[in-house]
Request: fold
Amino acid sequence: MWMHIEKNLKLAIGLTFIFFLVEVAGSLVSGSLSLLSDAGHMFRDVFALLLTLSAIVISRQLPTEQRTFGTHRVEILAALLNGVILLGISLLIMWEAVHLLAQPRPVRSGVMLVVAIVGFAVNLFIAFRLHGSHDINVKSAFLHVLTDTLSSVAVIVAAVIIFFTGFVLVDPILSLVISFVILVSAALLIRDSVRILLEFTPKGMDPKKIAKDIEAVEGVEGVHNMHIWSLCSNINALDAHILTKQDSMEKVEHIKSEIKKKLERHGISHSTLEFECRECMVNGALARLDH
Reply:
């Protein structure tokens, strides 16, 4: 299954990058800024697909003595770089679009239309190849390509309007809209990357609810010193101190197993649990006070 997914992703990356270059060339030939904006979308998709492929490949790599957590954070660093680059691209295109609104220039709508139609076909083909996967990263990449397919439709409509009416202002107007979408997605990508790098609690997780679920396990007296963070976009981790009165290792192991089952339902696949008895906590507190 993984080989099939990797094959589809590599094909998608190759086709998307090639057509990214085609759209840049088409923009220069036709004078269409909206084609260049759509190329920005394609550039974003190349990164999104690369991140998805990287996440799958990295997930199979074993940790080493020097990299005990593996290389999962490479994905996040790449995502952060992608977000910064897209932010710059979108701002430059918006700047140029404002200038074109003030001083319109001719657009070769025929070239624009052909390139946009081919782009739509390429995106549709890639979306078809990625559709149906249960992997969260592949689903994310599919959504990226799907939004770019809609962007291609918008460029096609703009090319038709220019061809039949000569209203060239639709090109910079559409460029502003597409660039704004890229700007928002880039800002969200940067925000999510920074959240992971700073080890914030993963989005959608409620630490209080998680602690309550842990405390609901029979034998657990309390939970404290709990930390929740993400290693990368699809691996969430937790460490916590669990207070229990159980003095049997067999019972403690059973409690640990039940806690891990609950954590997996919250999307936490990696957890480190330190069990303490009441006496240990009291002695620790006294030791800190004496110190």
User: Anything to note?
Assistant: The first strand starts at residue 220 and ends at 232.
